[in-house]
């Protein structure tokens, strides 16, 4: 009798439809089914994700690495640079954020940066190998910011004209504003959920979880890639809150194009200052689980990477992370520099991930990350070997 793994390999070319399982698959564990997946699905239950998350860590990380290789080139890491285009003065009470006007952090509020200064920074990022340029403004939302939106539209157009992906994070966004950014050529919109629905009210009270989800829906409906993730180390319970965060994003109509994983950087003057740092094993579990549950998504090591030794970063890459922020700053926190990351890439045989920066989700002929990777001959050869074993 053929083994479960052989049966899965034989069916992989046939594109087994979501929700239709063969008899051996129905009796296999959630973990086994996940390891064998050849396409993403959005029908996850929280219990299924919890089962994956709580696997022995070595088994979990190894499985995530294998699935990662099915959907992505393991040596390819996307380089992203994030610029704060409007600092401080935000009316929100996010308890981790230096830019909230409610906390005394010593941060000086500024006006929106000029278009030329932003494009100059984008040019420097591109020259240093960054593929995506992200722009963040410390606003609750975009209501009444017509001139600000006009300038941001010009920033987006300028970044795209350089052949880079353009991402912005501007707070809450309505459908019309999302449409404006889509027409400007925006690649992605970042709007993090931060944590699970259950833990969220312990961190933020001025914006609801559902308001965040509505912004994500407005962005998705406009045809812009969704970038949404969380912050680890907010006093959450990893076994439930990391699972809850992943479950919410993995059951959206489409998985996020990218999932940023931030380690809390405690800022003096904020309620989160002095918080116990997230444990490495919990960070790796979160990344590995996200990779298994959202296999085609880009998983980005974001804030707090600067505190991680190179060995810890490599462990995260091996467990499924495949993007980083690099450059001078990450909003208000320190970031690993380009030269430092170039040296790390050289030591470990990593290379910058090149994406279809001129394509947008929903365009005819659009090429998704998983489609780009599936054209890699190493993946095709691997699939042929699996079939030959049957």
CATH superfamily membership: Aldolase class I
Low-pLDDT segments: 1-27, 360-390
User: In angstroms, what separates the terminal alpha carbons?
Assistant: 11 Å
- How many domain units? 1
Shape: globular
Major pleated sheet = 10 strands, parallel
Q: Roughly what fraction of the amino acids lie in strands?
A: 5-15%
**Can you tell me the CATH architecture?**
Alpha-Beta Barrel
What oligomeric state do these chains adopt? single chain
Question: How many helices in DSSP terms?
Answer: 16
Helix percent band:
40-55%
Structural class given helices, strands, pairing?
Answer: alpha/beta
Provide a descriptive summary of the structure in words.
Its EC number is 2.8.1.6. Belongs to the radical SAM superfamily. Biotin synthase family. Pathway: Cofactor biosynthesis; biotin biosynthesis; biotin from 7,8-diaminononanoate: step 2/2. This is biotin synthase. With 390 residues, the chain is of the alpha/beta class. It has a single domain, classed as TIM Barrel, CATH 3.20.20. It has 16 helices and twelve strands. The strands form two sheets. Strands 1, 2, 3, 4, 5, 6, 7, 8, 9 and 12 form a ten-stranded parallel beta sheet that branches. The chain has a two-stranded antiparallel ribbon with strand order 10-11. Strand 6, helix 11 and strand 7 form a beta-alpha-beta unit. Helix 5 packs across helix 12 and helix 7 packs parallel to helix 8. The longest helix is centred in the middle third of the chain and has 16 residues. It starts with a helix and ends with a helix. The relative contact order is 0.16. The N terminus and C terminus are likely disordered.
